[in-house]
Amino acid sequence: MRTDTYPPYLDGGGRDWRDTATRYALLPLRIFLGVTFIYAGLDKLTDSAFMKDGGAGSIGDTMRAVRDSSAIPALVDLALKNPVGFGAAIALGELAVGIGTLIGLLTRLAALGGALISLSLWLTVSWASDPYYYGNDLIYLMAWLPLVLAGAPYLSLDAAWRNRRRQRAGGFD
After folding, report:
1. Rounded CA gap, 115 and 129, in Å?
2. Helices 107-124 & 27-46 angle (0-180, nearest 10)
């Protein structure tokens, strides 16, 4: 059992497959969440039925349908003051979160945004799912948490900026 804080490849030591797997463990999650949120945002922005106050498939009708079964009806009431604006805000938020996560730009902040979007959707749209694990928004919320905690330490703009700062500082943190 190793008790060292850093894997051996950080100080010039050898690298085995476990170290490599550990190093890139969050990358599949980052790619999945990034692509999914980009797709979700674009899908909402390009769906003419969704971006309406009322009608089949509209954000307005969706919010009215879940109002009484949501955990926080006041949050739904707030969204119903301007359903199209709320739908656009969610779509643009998903797009920004997805892009930030996928390219690793301010990843912790993007992941926090994704977690907050997922939390708000869980407390409103999928709150009444029974049993609770049928509601996918709770699962997305939990999936965002490792990225909130760890960020994107590899293959990201955040990592490139961090490495550049280290080089400018002479290799010291």
Report:
1. 19
2. 60
pTM over 0.70: yes
Q: Are 97 and 109 in contact (CB under 8 A)?
A: no
pLDDT of 172 reads 58
Burial 112-126 (b: 16+ CB within 10 A, else e): bbbbebbebbbbbbb
CB 62 within 8 A of CB 69: no
Distance from C-alpha of 108 to C-alpha of 115, rounded to nearest angstrom: 10
More confident residue, 21 or 50: 50
Structure tokens at 12: 């010039």
